[in-house]
Amino acid sequence: MDIHIAVVPVAGLGTRLLPATKSQPKEMLPVGRKPVVQYVVEELTRVGIQRVLFITGPAKTSIENYFDLNGELIQLLRETGKEDLLAEFEFERAPVQSFYTRQRQLRGLGHAVACAQSFVGDQPFAVALGDSIIGVNAQSDVVRRLTQCFIDKNAAAVVAFEEVPRNEVRRYGIAQPKSDGEIFEIADVVEKPSAEDAPSNLAIAARYVFAPSIFDALARTKPGKDGEIQLTDAIRLLIQEGGKVYGVRLRDAEPRFDIGNFDSYFRAFVEFALADAKHGPALRRHLERLLNDSHS
Ligand code: UTP
Fold first, then answer.
1. Is 28's C-beta closer than 6 angstroms to any atom of ligand 1?
2. Which superfamily does CATH assign the domain made up of 5-159+178-186+203-256 to?
3. Is it the case that residue 18 has pLDDT exceeding 80?
């Protein structure tokens, strides 16, 4: 059994990135040369996902346009002798089909995933948050590892985790693992706990694989304190009702870049720009000069 469908929620308002996100989706912000969501789709395509369902909203049509063919632009580049730039559009021809549906009310990530139910039907599927890149230039096969674990353990859900500093646990869903190791069963998962209450520092890292039973759990999940239906709460329900839920740790070489706040957005941009084969070395020299000057 392989997993062919990924759901990519991109409907959120991105208020933590205002004013940058006032009239453009945060998922379209560039990190190095490409918008965030292109890295997400490239990661998914590389692990064999064939159909991507974007959960979108009214301000997100630029995402749909981005993954469409732009015949006019291609024609113009040909006519003006800029054929070399055509290579930049290869992602338009990737063997993955894009679909779009709207989350008509912004009622949280869990609600966004629930919008995929009629598309997904009764098969397992992946979820990849559209505002998070895993690994520099999306060099990660974590979704394949989640899928393998899902199959091996006959799981109800498998979730990617990363270790975060204790003072950041209040931003994430946090696991209570049953054991150490790269793959572990989860006893519980808590949305945005305080540092004192957090059962560990293992934070949910934007990638999941679910059995279709998650839809039933989501339908029974009550809105949290902020009025939103949390995906973490639905996973918790799966565990409480006897479902096997596992965690898979991200490896050192695949940090998660969360493009949801300026701190991690700035870091991601600099890291990707430094890794750029053409412009990275000059940027590195520039940054070294800047940092040396600020120390002298
Ligand atoms: P966030 O939790 O960062 O929420 O979403 P947000 O609303 O986009 O951002 P802030 O808090 O206002 O700054 C994580 C991912 O889930 C999607 C977002 O688009 C993002 O890719 N999402 C979130 C939805 O699709 N629908 C929602 O109701 C909430």
1. no
2. Spore Coat Polysaccharide Biosynthesis Protein SpsA; Chain A (3.90.550.10)
3. yes
